[in-house]
Amino acid sequence: MNASELREKTADQLNEELVALKKEAFNLRFQQATGQLENTARMRDVKRGAARVKTILNEKAKAAAGEAN
């Protein structure tokens, strides 16, 4: 999912997305530790996706704080 699609979502939807990505990262780490992980590039994609969601959440929080002032 790219940043423009994420910016269209609400903060609650972004938080749900972040939780899902963190769960997936956890599962991928377990698969890697047990030697079952076949697509190692997926770990990188999940980490980047989580970082992207966090960035959008911070942008939204900053914009909301700016409107409050």
UniProtKB/TrEMBL annotation:
Pfam families, sorted: Ribosomal_L29
Keywords associated with the record: Coiled coil, Ribonucleoprotein, Ribosomal protein
InterPro entries given in the database record: Ribosomal_protein_uL29, Ribosomal_uL29, Ribosomal_uL29_sf
GO cellular component terms, A-Z: cytosolic large ribosomal subunit
GO biological process per UniProt: translation
MF annotations from Gene Ontology: structural constituent of ribosome
Domain of life: Bacteria
Coiled-coil intervals: 4-31
Entry-linked HAMAP family: Ribosomal_uL29
Name used for this protein in its record: Large ribosomal subunit protein uL29
Organism, as annotated: Litoreibacter meonggei
Gene behind this protein: rpmC
